[in-house]
Specification:
Elements lengths: L1 H18 L22 E5 L1 E2 L2 E5 L5 E5 L10 E4 L7 E9 L4 E9 L11 E5 L2 E7 L10 E8 L3 E9 L9 E9 L3 H39 L1
Antiparallel strand pairs: 1-4, 2-3, 3-6, 4-5, 5-12, 6-11, 7-10, 7-12, 8-9, 8-11
Helix pairs in contact: 1-2
């Protein structure tokens, strides 16, 4: 009975895992923009930081903020892509295999007290826009919301980028806590759970085989009599 219960629990676990596989570690460098030291209540304008670089303007860089016009979703820093004009930034992920299954997650917030028309941000994977333009009317402080997308890698280098697309006026939406993680292949999960199920069933199979052998031996003994 205990073995049956264990098998049922394992089956439920396998179904859950196959439906929502757990991503591995973050493939991005500096996903929360914490590598740059910014004093509390201050911001800096940069064109490149570890992992991230300026790709297009008209803006000449992007802002890294610490507790200015809102607080970070993760750590101390977050970024705005319209510092002196709309900017596109990106990070290249190298060494991926064609067909790799990935999950992108990031947090977006409109800038506080600013209209939706200036808060637009778009996300791109290898130049293809992901979902619709993110925007919204800013309230008091940051109003963070998480966005997730399923990605498929091409062989070699893959580019993740974000672009400010609202009014190019020096104020815009914010980003924080960006991650790209590998998703385990469904086939490998199924094989793992099948092996575990086999381990649970094996003792019962051995008992049935032993019982059958004893019955055969008993029948042979009775026939000789």
């Amino acid at each position: 009975m205990k073995r049956v219960a264990s098998l049922l629990a394992l089956t439920a676990l396998s179904v859950s895992a196959l439906a929502a596989p757990v991503p591995a570690g973050n493939l991005l460098v500096n996903g929360s923009f914490e590598s740059t030291i910014v004093a509390n209540g201050n911001w800096v304008n940069v064109a490149a930081i570890p992992g991230w670089t300026w790709l297009a303007g008209p803006g000449t860089g992007f802002e890294i903020r610490n507790n200015v016009a809102g607080q970070a979703q993760d750590g101390s820093n977050f970024i705005e892509l319209d510092t002196n004009g709309n900017t596109t930034i990106g990070q290249t992920l190298a060494g991926l295999t064609a067909g790799d299954r990935l999950e992108l997650s990031f947090w977006y917030s409109p800038r506080e007290f600013q209209p939706a028309s200036t808060n637009g941000i778009q996300a791109f994977w290898n130049g293809v826009q992901l979902g619709s333009t993110l925007s919204g009317l800013g309230g008091s402080g940051n109003q963070w919301a998480e966005y997730k997308f399923s990605l498929t890698a091409q062989a070699g280098n893959n580019l993740l980028s974000f672009a400010a697309v609202g009014t190019s006026d020096g104020v815009g939406g914010s980003l924080d806590n960006v991650s790209v993680r590998r998703l385990p292949e469904p086939g490998s999960l199924a094989l793992s759970f099948a092996a575990l199920a086999g381990c649970l069933l094996l003792p019962r199979t051995l008992r049935r085989n032993a019982k059958a052998r004893r019955a055969t031996a008993l029948a042979a003994t009775l026939n000789r009599r």
